[in-house]
């Protein structure tokens, strides 16, 4: 009798363990998403709502996609549409879903600001090239780096590479801004990270926005579940739950209300974006 009861308990325990929900979601995201503090604020809210821990690694979009390909993440939170689509088309990711956007801006040391007044984005980049103004690129195949290269190509026909005034930091956005500030140069950043940078300096910095508002500078973020057909251990259940939450009314309201110095860092667009 005791043996029978013991076997029943063991069977129930095994069944429970097989059906128990995993409580970890492994995310690969971008430094720009992480630098703003958005995920730090989402984490306790999401854990309270779902019981799931989000464990994220912040790298450039290119490296985040590589993590997905290598089955080192369950979900990606990234911002480089062209390479995201390729990632999905090649079967590595599924359920690519819009979440939010902000925009890219060109920032420069205040001593340079007058050079760029009333100039278009194309003219601004041409001035940088012609006057050999120190430009600092992340150079890391991130979403920001991809956008920067695209803007250079549109402005002057090609992206700089070995020019003495063109510097590739190989680092994240905040680090790149800091280097550009020290060197009194120029860099391209997402607006959210720049607001975070200014917030860290009490709203005072030697950098100014020297170009903004161009239609080509929108910065779209999406989430992508790692395809379980490619990675059998990928936690598709928790990835789907996060996608559903971040695109829900609650998740979108959270993004809308996320501000620093009274400034919104992102605009939610899960309900409005058709394609990017």
Automatic annotation (TrEMBL):
<protein>
    <submittedName>
        <fullName>Tungsten ABC transporter substrate-binding protein</fullName>
    </submittedName>
</protein>
<dbReference type="Pfam" id="PF12849">
    <property type="entry name" value="PBP_like_2"/>
</dbReference>
<dbReference type="InterPro" id="IPR052738">
    <property type="entry name" value="ABC-Tungstate_binding"/>
</dbReference>
<feature type="domain" description="PBP">
    <location>
        <begin position="21"/>
        <end position="250"/>
    </location>
</feature>
<dbReference type="InterPro" id="IPR024370">
    <property type="entry name" value="PBP_domain"/>
</dbReference>
<feature type="signal peptide">
    <location>
        <begin position="1"/>
        <end position="20"/>
    </location>
</feature>
<keyword id="KW-0732">Signal</keyword>
<dbReference type="InterPro" id="IPR053775">
    <property type="entry name" value="TupA"/>
</dbReference>
<dbReference type="GO" id="GO:1901238">
    <property type="term" value="F:ABC-type tungstate transporter activity"/>
</dbReference>
